[in-house]
Specification:
Layout: E1 2-8, H1 14-30, E2 32-35, E3 38-42, H2 45-58, E4 65-72
Antiparallel strand pairs: 1-3, 1-4, 2-3
Helix pairs in contact: 1-2
Length: 96
């Protein structure tokens, strides 16, 4: 499934700045950053459950916000990009 994750972490405290870095790292482990606080992830059901559990363990539910959009399997028809394209094809070949 294709998932879009957006987040807003309250960084007014040092602990908030730490949470922000942890949320970004967690999302990066599952997908690619497409904007500052936006990640696209191509994951299966169990990966989605793990990702969501990790994010819930990081954030402060009274101060932070995470939005998860499940675009499903036919996501190609639901995404439109305008302007400079800086990301890679998540389903394409990756040469390291």
């Amino acid at each position: 499934m294709y998932v879009l994750i957006t987040y807003d972490v309250n960084t007014s405290s040092e602990n908030g700045q730490k949470r922000l870095r942890q949320v970004a790292k967690c999302c990066k482990d599952f997908g690619q950053r497409v904007q500052n606080s936006v990640f696209e992830c191509l994951i299966d059901g169990s990966g989605f459950v793990r990702l969501k559990a990790k994010l819930l363990n990081i954030i402060d539910k009274e101060l932070d916000s995470i939005r998860i959009y499940q675009l499903g399997k036919n996501y190609q028809t639901k995404i439109e990009h305008l302007g400079v394209k800086t990301s890679f094809d998540i389903e394409g070949e990756l040469i390291i």
